[in-house]
Amino acid sequence: MDFSTALRTERLVAIIRGSDAEASFRTVMALAEAGLPLVEISLSGKDALGVIRRARAELGDAAWIGAGTVLTGSDARRAAEAGANLIVTPGLGAGLEESVRQGLSTLAGVLTPSEVIAAEALGVSALKLFPASAGGPAYLQALRAPFPELPFVPVGGVDAAIAQAYFDAGAVAVGVGSPLVGDAADGGDLDELRKRAAEFRAVCAR
User: At what angle do helices 113-122 and 94-101 cross, to 10 degrees?
Assistant: First the structure.
């Protein structure tokens, strides 16, 4: 399954930014076991590249293991070497350009129409509307008017309650960090993480 298909099928990208590398790895595995196979591991987290390497070794080639907060060309190259097959950026720039050049699946951070046009011209896989909380579902709906066919993924302030409103506004998926992961990647309760994962899965299956 390619990334675009996986995104539309699963409708959720889990975002992990942990202060504890071991806990972050356990969080990736718990999410995979809970049926959430699209995971972004932010490079701003503790030993993120090590977490990506371990997750790739454990989950195999078929898993979608993303590197997030990719800013530079070096970030993109190191993430790919660690085993990331998805690159997520907060905006446009060298990290995104290098990721596209390498042929990696990309979720490019955009907010304005001009940024959407620039990202689409690069040939990105999907558009990360970030921070989505700046305008909410109404902004996504307005943004889709000139870009009705493009795949938008709202990220930032997305919880289970508002996720459905984004889907109703035309999002193909949502990206969710702390409302899903909570403190699991910092050593928190994995059972609570599993409960939240089930809640989000139910929303995304509607």
Answer: 30
